[in-house]
Amino acid sequence: MRNIRLKVAYDGTNYHGFQRQHETHGPTIQGTLESVWARLVEEEVTLATAGRTDTGVHASGQVVNFMTQARIPEDKIPKAFNSMLPRDIKILQAECVSDDFNARWSAKWKRYDYQMDNKPIQDVFTRLYACHVPIPLNVALMQEAANLLEGRHNFKTFAAAGGASKTFERTIYRLLVKEDHGLIIVSCVGDGFLYHMVRIIVGTLMDVGKGRIRPQEIPEIIASQERQRAKMIAPAHGLSLVHVNYTEESPFEVFKDLKINNLT
């Protein structure tokens, strides 16, 4: 038996999230990957994943692992997989890891990016990957609020109902808001995330950018631990899982762009 780790990229537009569900709900990333592997080597496996992304959410750096008896060399797995996968899912890398590795529980930190198209008329070329917000957003105020969300907090206010987590304390190492020619990107790096947490944080930052919430209110919103204090959930299609890290490297060693404005 080998424990195989895969790095996966996918466009989540046509999928009912990552997690395998009953086929009547529509295709999922997990179900597609497991089905293709069964066709490749006539073996059924169950994937463990770093993050169960929701319907419509994308990934450029998702990580999964599974135990297999198949003898196909690791360096041949991506090409074999990709020859049978649909065009919107690709295996970027495959490697054999220790038996105790688990894509979810072994992760040290993750990075998600959320994109907003802040131009008056929606860009047709980013419409599947960026949420259109035609109202001008104040990026400086959004970053001021983002700074107050960094650190270790009880993020119960930013957790949607239906999640399985029993504890709500998480650490956000970096929450960065950048703007480039009308495209606003929120990069959220943390040791773990609650159900819909990133999308609720982004929705709250949107409200700050629109002037509906003052940055100074953020500590009170966090302390309230009341879900209704952060009402807005940003649409799923703007979100992408960018990276999952399993080493002791800090996010700022891996991603130099997180050091912008000398705030680290």
Per-chain topology:
Blueprint: E1 2-10, H1 29-41, E2 48-49, E3 58-68, H2 77-82, E4 89-97, E5 109-117, E6 131-132, H3 139-149, E7 151-154, E8 169-180, E9 183-190, H4 197-209, H5 218-224, E10 239-245, H6 251-254
Helix pairs in contact: 3-4
Account of the protein in words:
By secondary structure, this protein is an alpha+beta fold. The protein has helices spanning 29-41, 77-82, 139-149, 197-209, 218-224, 251-254; strands at residues 2-10, 48-49, 58-68, 89-97, 109-117, 131-132, 151-154, 169-180, 183-190, 239-245. Strands 1, 2, 3, 4, 5, 6, 7, 8, 9 and 10 form a ten-stranded mixed sheet that branches. Strand 8 (169-180) and strand 9 form a beta hairpin. Helix 3 packs across helix 4 (197-209). The longest helix is centred in the N-terminal third of the chain and has 13 residues, at 29-41. The mean pLDDT is 94.
